[in-house]
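An instance noted here:
***
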Amino acid sequence: MAETTTAVKKKKRKNSKLADTWRLFKKRKTSVLGLIIFSMILFMVVCAPLFVEKSKVEESDWEYLTSPPVAGHIFGTDELGRDIFARVLYGGRNSLEIGLISMVCALSMGVVIGSLCGYFGGILDQVVMRILDVLKSIPTTVLALAIVAALGGSKTNLIIAIMISQTPAQVRLVRSAVIGIAGREYFEAARACGTSTPRIIFKHIVPNCIGTVIIQASMAMAQMILQAASLSFIGLGIQPPEPEWGSMLSNAREYMSTAPWLMIFPGLFIMLSAYSFNLIGDGLRDALDPKLRS
């Protein structure tokens, strides 16, 4: 009976924290706007078959070569008569997938490596931090560019390149958060009770860093979408005829003055996606700030 009561109390506390987080998040109207914008983009991309058939991605309509928006082609067509609306929606799947997978992998590595370095310190911390200093000294886009150039242009290689280029920043962030909380009394008590190191790290330390990790995840997602688009723009990402926002912008360069809609619509989706994640990150930062909760 006592165990059941304890479980109920824990569930209530968890629900209360989520409710408080949402209450503080929605106080920032711009962050709610960002959430709405991203939700709309995600719905359109995931449910693309509801709006347009996938065959339209590569199907050419020879009657409408480089056509402005008309009935049947609401975003217009490209130089090969392909529907821009279909290519933007299905290309968004590639762009968001690259950003999401890269973000999850980079943050996972950041949490694991940063927690170990912050908790143990010593030689392990010094060696890992010096290696990361070397990587951090190289601009992230240049580092990703070098990795993709070495591995070759593909979705998998693009994810690997972005993940590696973004990992040093995530490791440093988590490491600093762990150092700030690892010396507190309840961790010393956990050690004195014989709690194993993995349990201390993943049961006590990581949950106390989760707010910082979530905020960084939202900010990193925007950077990774832009980075994926940049690499695809110069031909080192998704390869034609597979659609992707960055590669669509690259193909539209020659028609910038004569057919601006080729560049406007994929560029608009890139801008709105990155902008919405930045707004969401600002709201999460405020919502997860302990000073605002008190």
Remarks:
- Residues 94-294 form a domain with the MetI-like fold fold (CATH 1.10.3720.10).
- The mean pLDDT is 82.
- The CA atoms of residues 109 and 167 lie 7 Å apart.
